[in-house]
Write a structure and sequence with these properties.
The protein is of the alpha/beta class. The chain has four helices and five strands. Strands 3-2-4-1-5 form a five-stranded parallel sheet, with helices on one face. α1 runs antiparallel to α2 and α3 packs across α4. The longest helix has 15 residues.
């Protein structure tokens, strides 16, 4: 079952299964008990989000060079043993369990979830974009 890479808060795809939020912070202004019903996420996994300092770098990146610097640093963070184990776990689960991972960003190409897609794929996961 492929992992869907999604924008948190978007309409749920009927096939996406459990929605995992790979974000540093919960959505602003949303009460904890409303996070899942409002389609943000079912489970929060902030370990796969960029660190707070790196998140600020990503938001400030305006040039290709700045974005590439973020990419290298994020990949290094995800290469630590704990994060690499999480990625391997999700990749393995993708073969038997329906779930999705996502972030708040509108543009996936300038979001860590595009990199997470690559890391999951490299770890052997089947990963797709949602339809619609």
């Amino acid at each position: 079952m492929p992992i869907l890479i999604i924008q948190l808060g978007s309409h749920r795809n009927p096939d996406e299964g459990l929605r995992i939020g790979t974000v540093r912070r919960p959505p602003r202004g949303v009460r904890k008990e409303r996070i899942a019903p409002e389609n943000w996420y079912d489970v929060w996994l902030p370990q796969l989000a960029p660190s707070a300092a790196l998140l600020q770098e990503a938001k400030a990146a305006t040039t290709v060079a700045e974005w590439q610097r973020f990419v290298r640093k994020y990949r290094a963070e995800m290469g630590t043993p704990d994060n690499a184990h999480l990625i391997d776990l999700l990749a393995s689960l993708s073969h038997s369990t329906a779930f999705s991972v996502g972030c708040y960003c509108e543009n996936e190409e300038r979001c860590h979830r595009s990199l997470l897609r690559e890391l999951l794929t490299a770890a052997g996961a089947s990963v797709v974009r949602p339809s619609g």
